[in-house]
Write a structure and sequence with these properties.
Layout: E1 4-7, H1 10-21, E2 29-33, H2 40-51, E3 65-68, E4 75-79, H3 86-92, E5 102-106, E6 119-126, E7 132-139, H4 141-148
Helix pairs in contact: 1-2
Length: 149
């Protein structure tokens, strides 16, 4: 899988999420970084749709975390924007569901990486021309092998 992507439309961002669904496995952690409007939720929507989640995947900003079941793998979708510390993450008790799920965390850099031995960081950005970009950064040999394979 390519590591750098240009995403002219929201459908392109969702398609990248769908492509990630082909390589994720139970226990995976995906950390999404980028400014507001960069496509973090759209990417998660594509991932959820490709996993077969039947319900809409919306931003969990106000509930902080949502669990979507019914697909090939459960999808735990977290918005860590309002979390200020690792202790706040611990209070969510996310590690109780990470072994059987794919956990996607928006705004989680520096807070959630310890939830898994390896993780994939997806750096999303929004250019001045409103085109989004994504860079996939594997952290760990398992993710490196999957992205290179």
């Amino acid at each position: 899988m390519r590591r750098e992507h240009v995403l002219p439309t929201v459908d392109d961002t969702r398609a990248l999420g769908a492509a990630l669904a082909g390589v994720v496995a139970p226990g995976d952690l995906v950390v999404l970084t980028g400014p507001l409007g960069a496509g973090k939720t759209a990417l998660t929507q594509g991932l959820g749709a490709a996993l077969g989640v039947g319900e809409p995947v919306t931003s969990p900003t106000f509930v902080i975390a949502r669990v979507h079941r019914g697909g090939r793998l459960p999808l735990v979708h977290v918005d860590a924007y309002r979390l200020g510390s690792v202790a706040d993450v611990d209070d969510l008790d996310l590690d109780a569901s990470t072994e059987e799920s794919v956990t996607v965390v928006e705004w989680g850099a520096g807070l959630v990486e310890r939830l898994a031995d390896e993780h994939l960081e997806v750096r999303l950005d929004r250019r001045d021309d409103d085109v989004r970009t994504a860079v996939l950064l594997p952290h760990g040999p398992g993710w490196t092998a999957r992205l290179d394979g």
